[in-house]
Amino acid sequence: MSTLADSSHPTRPAIAWIGLGIMGSPMSENLIKAGYDVTGFTLEQDKLDRLAKAGGRAAGSIAEAVKDADVVITMVPASPQVEAIAYGPDGILDNARSGALLIDMSSITPQTSVDLAKAAKDKGIRVLDAPVSGGEAGAIEAVLSIMVGGEQADFDEAEPVLEALGKTIVLCGPHGSGQTVKAANQLIVAVNIQACAEAVVFLEKSGVDLTAALDVLNGGLAGSTVLTRKKDNFLQRDFKPGFRIDLHHKDMGIVTDAARNVGAALPVGAVVAQLVASLRAQGDGGLDHSALLRAVERLSGAQV
Ligand code: NAD
């Protein structure tokens, strides 16, 4: 089995990128800027055109994208999409070369990552789960936190590639560990957004200058990356995604399920999961997760 070190691209592995959405587009463009050859495939033609304009190559299928790649990176919505692109005759496992490294950066269930690593091993393909935190802004600025699960040797090979995408890159343990840490991340982010949303409604109803209040709050113990990144969304009621409520609903399901499996109680997380589900049921699934503010406004009697 060959590895990246003895590939035909010893210093700059050839990259295939599957999934060029809100995150995948800017992330793949950062690899191109760092000097990597990137061949991509995604479902939307305009995203393929964007990749080509940025200096990448647009492929017509997953098979075409991955066939000559040393590293295959995937960034799709959830477990069913990861399974759809990985398995089957048109999928990554049947078409990538033996020795390739598959880095799945999607946020999915830890068990899907474990199963994928096992299935890929039979084909001589190594896998890392490497979900990210930092949002669209973090992707554009290449400052993502990347939580990795898998083998140390594969992590060491992936690190230079990941360094073009993020700032904090940590191997958390065996396959699935990156996803478990990401699930915890999504719990913390959702609860934090909910607390900020409740504070915003409380402050506005109290007649306090909201901009001044959020500025001073962000300088103290109540400050957070969530408040820094989402302050303008709250102030301007700008809920263009960003990170869609639909995806956070998926993530609250992952963390709730994973916690139940290990016997961990998440009482506040469970309530926030319900609020996210309620927002989605009211047709707000396509909005940014800062739209949790709309749920608090509705509960507080405002016309939204
Ligand atoms: P997105 O919906 O914007 O993009 C997903 C992309 O996957 C689309 O371009 C779609 O064409 C592609 N895709 C889906 N099925 C495919 C298939 N069968 N073949 C090829 N391409 C396919 O989603 P996103 O916001 O970029 O999120 C991607 C992942 O990153 C999710 O797991 C999400 O939870 C996670 N994430 C998102 C953010 C964020 O702020 N948006 C932050 C951290 C993590």
From TrEMBL:
A Pfam match: NAD_binding_2
InterPro entries on file: 6-PGluconate_DH-like_C_sf, 6PGD_dom2, 6PGDH_NADP-bd, HIBADH-like_NADP-bd, HIBADH-related, NAD(P)-bd_dom_sf, Tartro_sem_red
Alphabetic keyword roster: NAD, Oxidoreductase
GO BP terms in the entry: glyoxylate metabolic process
Domain 3-hydroxyisobutyrate dehydrogenase-like NAD-binding: 176-295
EC numbers: 1.1.1.60
Active site: K182
6-phosphogluconate dehydrogenase NADP-binding domain ranges (all copies): 15-173
Keyword check for NAD: yes
Gene Ontology MF, one: NADP binding
Record's protein name: 2-hydroxy-3-oxopropionate reductase
